[in-house]
Specification:
The chain is an all-alpha fold. It has 8 helices and no strands.
């Protein structure tokens, strides 16, 4: 009988949720939450600083590799053939690329525009001999001192914001754990 089977399943579930199991699970959850908070704080210390991205640094790219450049090209060509051809011809003439190279470059752009721009900027920095983007921005600026000050202020402000967020979250977890302490079940 399905009704009796369900009733038996529910009674088994309820009997497995004895108070001692609930408290043990709650204690485990509080410990896990505390550990995750500490791990997140430790791992995100550099999240608010300016670090290079890309394959050379081992930091992840900005897209998932589910939809590749070839698929993006087919979709773009089907969607608007005239614009696609104009873009490819423009790339071939402005960059001196073959049709295959231009299509590959445009496909990479379509799949991950942000990553493409970051990669192009990184290649330009390397070609011109700049150490990082900050050095390049300061060198290209009309007022290098003001540019460096703006970048330093921006970095410092965001590091402070990130630290404040981590402190607030940690305080909330600590407050919760002190207001709801683990009480061992009696025998």
């Amino acid at each position: 009988n399905p009704a009796l089977a369900r009733r038996g399943l529910i009674s088994n579930l309820l009997s497995s949720l004895q108070p001692s199991h609930c408290f043990a699970k709650m204690k485990l959850m509080i410990r896990l939450l505390s550990f995750l908070t500490i791990a997140a704080a430790a791992s995100s210390v550099g999240a608010f600083s300016v670090l290079p991205h890309g394959p050379a640094t081992g930091r992840p790219a900005t897209s998932l590799s589910v939809f590749g450049p070839k698929q993006a090209l087919v979709v773009e060509r089907t969607k608007n053939p005239a614009k696609f051809e104009q873009t490819i011809q423009g790339l071939m003439s402005s960059k001196g690329l073959t049709r295959g190279q231009a299509e590959k470059r445009y496909g990479e752009f379509l799949v991950d525009p942000d990553g493409f721009a970051l990669k192009a900027a990184e290649e330009e920095r390397r070609e011109k001999g700049y150490k990082d983007w900050i050095e390049q921005a300061v060198a290209k600026s009309d007022d290098p001192d003001a540019t460096r000050k703006r970048i330093d202020d921006f970095t410092k402000r965001n590091q402070l914001k990130g630290t404040a967020i981590m402190i607030a979250f940690s305080a909330a977890v600590l407050s919760y754990s002190t207001m709801n302490p683990y009480i061992s079940p009696g025998p």
